[in-house]
Amino acid sequence: MIGLLASRGSLERLQIEQLGIGQLHWSTANYAPPQELALWDGLVAMYEQGLVRAVGVSNYGPKQLVKVHDYLKTRGVPLCSAQVQFSLLSMGEEQMEIKEVCDSLGVRLIAYSPLGLGMLTGKYTSSQLPVGPRGLLFGQILPGLQPLLKVLSKIATKRRKTIPQVAINWCICKGAIPIPGVKTVRQAEENLGALGWRLSLEEQIELEYAASSSPRKMIQNVFQTRYVCNALSSAQNSLPLIYFLIKTLCHAR
Fold it and tell me: Residue 78 sits in which domain range?
């Protein structure tokens, strides 16, 4: 099985005996349905052979998440995690439904891009954009983010924290495990400042209200189930493809 080969290869490269968790990066249900069950069986085999302590999935929509959970349960394998894009820029109906499903099934939600690829760091403005493909996406979203960035800055000042620390802490308060990308030791140290405290309920509501007022939302991963067919078949909206390029070329922060 591909899953076994991949996990054994990872163990050999890392020079360890067991991986903490093995995750499917996305579902093939929307473009190669016959592969899906084989991939799930790969998770089972990895778990049963002790190559991983736990298994999870990534970029699964709510319906497919329930399906893989139920299948693994019949095989005696608990689904540990579901990794999806989740942040103040990505808290739409679909993502919140995924969170609700995770809560009901006892699955931990892992939040990637908790800083919206950098848009929630306060580093960029509509007149100061990153170079390359990220600049195209930022240029469409950042102009409408000022209300949210102002609230983030206000709370950060009040709490003596940084804007990224507040944005990451919001994810933690929602029960998610954020995994912000880091390129420097300084960024890693800054991210640690999001731990050990919690936003008040009032602060969370204020942030969410400001986020909901943004006219443009973060585009979800093109391979997340429920998005695949529409994103790949529609030429009218290029943002999903831009985002896919971004995710391919850049670290998700």
Answer: 1-85
